[in-house]
């Protein structure tokens, strides 16, 4: 019997969806992971056996609450976009281009 991975769907609050992009970074209960898919009202994470064996994520059950931390770059981009300050020059200056 070989170990198998999990699919973990995490519900999001509407105001937090702006911080998520497919294949972007997110931390769940302190574990840095990659967003696999964006779905209406949630995002999906694909967990490999190594992650399940070496973190506490395996102990989560349906409807468990988890701590989600969004990628700093996403938060920065949202802030700058709301200020109207995202330009090619700003992205180059900050090392993104």
Q: Strand arrangement, largest sheet?
A: 1-5-4
Task: State the helix count.
Answer: 3
* Largest sheet descriptor: 3 strands, antiparallel
- Would you identify the regions where 5 or more consecutive residues have pLDDT less than 50? none
Spatial extent as radius of gyration: 16 Å
Strand content: 25-35%
Helix content: 10-25%
Q: How many strand segments?
A: 6
N-to-C SSE series?
EEEEEHEHH
Mean pLDDT: 85
Give the helix/strand class.
alpha+beta
Straight-line distance between termini = 46 Å
The general outline is elongated
Q: Can you offer a commentary on this structure?
A:
With 97 residues, the chain is of the alpha+beta class. 25% of the residues lie in helices and 27% in strands. The chain has a 3-stranded antiparallel beta sheet with strand order 1-5-4. Strands 3-2-6 form a 3-stranded antiparallel beta sheet. The longest helix has 12 residues, at 72-83. It is elongated and about 50 Å long. The termini are far apart.
